[in-house]
Amino acid sequence: xxxxxxxxxxxxxxxxxxxxxxxxxxxxxxxxAEPVDSGDVTALGDLDIxxxxxxxxxxxxxxxxxxHVFISRLAGGAWQPPERLxxxxxxxxxxxxxxxxxxxxxxxxxxxxxxxxxxxxPAADQPYTAPQLVATAASNPAIDLSINNVAYLSFTMPGGxxxxxxxxRKDRTSTAFAGIPGALDVAQASPAGVDGGRSKVAxxxxxxxxxxxxxxxxxxxxxxxxxxxxxxxxxxxxxxGGPADVPDVDVQDDSSFAWVVFxxxxxxxxxxxxxxKLVGSQFDPPATIDGQPYPSSDNVGPxxxxxxxxxxxxAASAVTGASFGAVIKDRKLNPGVxxxxxxxxxxxPVAAVDEAGxxxxxxxxxxxxVHARPFDNRRDSRALPAPAADAxxxxxxxxxxxxxxxxxxxxxxxxxxxxxxxxxVPGSRAIMVASFDRAPGAFRLSSxxxxxxxxxxxxxxAPSFELWGxxxxxxxxxxxxxxxxxxxxxxLPPTLRDGLYRWSxxxxxxxxxxxxxxxxxxxxxATLPRATLRVSGPRRRRRPIQVRVTATDANPAGRRASGIGxxxxxxxxxxxxxxxxxxxxxxxxxxxTMQVTVRDRAGNVAVVNRRIRIR
Length: 615
What we know:
The protein is an all-beta fold and 615 residues long. Helices cover 0% and strands 49% of the residues.
């Protein structure tokens, strides 16, 4: 089910508690930044969240005076204790990147001692593999894991022109990466993948990868089909412009469609953030991310892009004085809007989107704090989502956010979002994560309003959709709490008296956010019906006897009851009747047990037995 990203009135400043979402229409709120790890953090590496809400955050931190790579996994909506991934390596490590897929699957790559290593976690309940040496000399890795467990790892190796972009692939049934022969470079003699030309990679659901990089002042895109490199690289650089660099890329589930963003200088001497859509083998005309006219085109930072499987998403960029966000909807990039002030070129804005098209853009504000503005997309409307109110995610009291350490954001399919950054001063920096946590999804009561014995037959409801942590359900009857459970059902206590009630269920997540159902009528009858049996007539073979059943469902206390639903008479010789008055002839002599079963409309059953001898 779809849940909207509309932000309710909640506390968003560090140090304040999250206000509980008390109304049925509320959908969640921002969680102020929480520390994942502290100490001497040197750089945030990467953040990724799978569609099912699991994920990972990698970063570099000094351990015994040497930089090493650490990861914190996201499980049940909580960031797990940090784990070092290069424990068997004494050399300094850095440039960590991570990608996540459903089931707790993770792939990580990093540079240590100038060599490239990869680590895989096949599932949440399985350990990491030992670091795999992928290349003895490498830099600038990028990694992506598809929803079908196929991963690609692009990186730069020393080459004749100063650098070559190469790629390795992990098959869906494997935990190891295998290099794909040949460089992706258009011209082997040109420098590729170095400085602002570092590569980025994205993998579609069909397992086809798209790699982008900078080469000799151009931005190039090239697909990789399993172990085969496309013979038709595409130049994404806008015509009439000058040098281009710092590309980013994302693809839809269908690999035929992708978006590439980059920074490019034009003939007017200004630098712009540019986005282009790749359709098949052709790029659509370029569009600018930060809108027209530009407030300034100086100090343009690296643009970022994030789209969902349908191609909806957001692009982000920063120029002098402002960060911008642009909405990708109806297969085009719409004009960007200014989101907030930033230091020239240092806003580092990042975008994240869920499968419904809701998302956010986060950036480093001019005052040294991290801010975000969410977007609430309506897929049934052509109207563009506008950014909601500015939400501060960090607090200067904990130290300034570190622009040089990086800023990352990611979302799951339900719209839970995380923004990661480093905060503090050199020698005492922490990895922080702020979140937008969805309230439990709207859900419905499934038990009908007909009469029932709610003690014997539990009340039931559809589970509330929640990816980040367990949900606790509280059942209320006539406004009084009857019980709590983590299962979507509850049997009522035997002390509940018969009668008519109104009941509802409230779902509460790990953050204390709640979602309530509407109230529904409950007709409760736990009292057994009563029956008497009268038999008259000669008790002789083949002679008729008359049977009369008197049944009532009246409650001794005079409360409402469900009423008699059915009466069944079993004569003990195989014959039966569903009438309260019946005539029967036994065809043989003997001792028979006549049984009367009375059932009320709530399912309560009373049984009366009478032994009768036929002569």
